Amino acid sequence: MDFDLSDEQRLLKDSVDRLIADRYGFEQRKKIVAEEPGFSRELWSKYAELGLLGLPFPEEYGGFGGGGVETAIVMEAFGRGLVIEPYLATVLLGGSLVLAAGTAAQKQSILPRIADGSMLLAFAHHERQARYDLADVAMSAGEHGGEWRLNGEKSLVLHGEVADKLIVSGRISGNRRDRGGIGLFLVDGNAQGVTRRAYRTQDNMRASEINFETTPATPLGTPTGKSFAIIARIVDRTIAALCAEAVGAMEVLHALTVDYLKTRKQFGRPIGDFQVLQHRAVDIFTALEQARSMALFAGLMADSEDAEERSKSIAAAKVQIGRSGRLVGQEGIQLHGGIAMTMEYAAGHYLKRLTMIDKMFGDADWHLSRLAAAGGLFGKAA
Question: Global pTM?
Answer without folding.
Answer: 0.96
